[in-house]
Specification:
about 50% helix; three-stranded antiparallel sheet; single chain; four-stranded mixed sheet
Amino acid sequence: MLLTCDVHLIKKVLSRAHDFHAPVEVLNLYNLYGPTLAGSEGEQWRLYRKMSTPFFNSRTYSRVWKEGLMKVERVSTQWYKGETRISDVKGELMSKLNLRVIAKTFYDQELEYDRNDAMKDVAPSSHSLTFSEAINAVLSNLATLFGLPKWLLGSGADSMSPFQSHQKAYLGYLEWRQYMYEMRDPVQSQLESVKRKEEPCFLESDQEGSQSLTEAEVLGNIFFYVMAGFDTTSTTLSFVFLLLAIHPSCQALLQQQLDQVFGSKPVSEWNVNDEVQQLLNGYLGAVISETLRLYHPVAWYARKTVRQTTVTDSRGASHVIPADTIIMIDVAAIGRHATYWPSENADTKRKQCSPALDFDPSRWLKSETQENQGKATSYPFSSGHRMCPGKRFAEVEMCAIVARIFSQFSLRLKPEDTDVQQAISAGHDPAWMEQRTKERAANALFEGLGFGHGIYPKSHTPFEIIPRTEKSHEV
């Protein structure tokens, strides 16, 4: 196995499709419900790619923009009533928002929620877990579900395993499978009526007479696309919000751009064609890029040599890699490598305490040479022929959610009760409390990270969502 963060070598590996394939024996982990785009190569991979690519078009991006704005509007209505505290940003907010957008855009499914609390999901009468609970149960137990036979796991009285964690994993597996069956029906009906439609739907081919997918292939790819789109985007948005809460000055610069772009325009008039690229080219795009640099939700990309291959590294040295060698591309190391990303502002000692203290979106808005250098050492959606097909989908969705929330609200870190008591007893001023709270939050984004099939904020960092008093919330 070869583990590397050498960007020159990585560029060769990702671009030479005939020499480096995906290691399907590793990525078969995702084939939990059936064959997937990730766990395939050759003709099978090309079929799955062809069946999904037509869906990612300008009409889909218009829908995801609209749904992102609408879903935020639904949950944010209650935030105007006063300060709203969020402790687990991914679990309480981002997972739910993202899944609601994906379910509606991909499968025309409206997920149920509590009418008195739009941030609370509700399980349909036919389910014991909500949509969010089911997919999270599968993702948090992916290795267990892949590695152990289903007859051993079971659930309730049928379980042969004495471990409650196994039973919960299996319940999530069954519940999510049932949700996929419910999503599969409209997908298959759309596939059958493809000749009568003007728009391609998810998992259809735009070629007449093309091979159709089996039920297992449909279920497998439904799972993979929901997993890939949901988990990576919700995790990235979670880190975006935590980093902006830690850095109020960056939050203010983001809001400044949003005010310039949208002015007093009602949200109903925001247009994906007019505003998204402007946002991505400005400070909002820089915030997303810097977040992905420091906290990329995917820890690594994997490739495998098809044959003995020679590559050169960034120093010009040649290396012979034997056939069948697994190459692990260390995404986290690339994003935090001091040679690629020199820091002008953060104290070196403080940076070592937490990468969150090196958060500097402005590095993406400097000279064109610096910006191009940054892009050359960044692979947020991978690269080459296996680049993420949902790149634009994710960018549009993140733009919609971030823009809609920060145009009307601000985030403020919530201090620990013990720190409040210490400040009172010792007579510390507000600046001490602010710095103490920031240090705790930054440390949580260093020592408090979780790792499954990617990284995520495991230690909860509470913050408040506060209406911007100088902004009207007319929609």
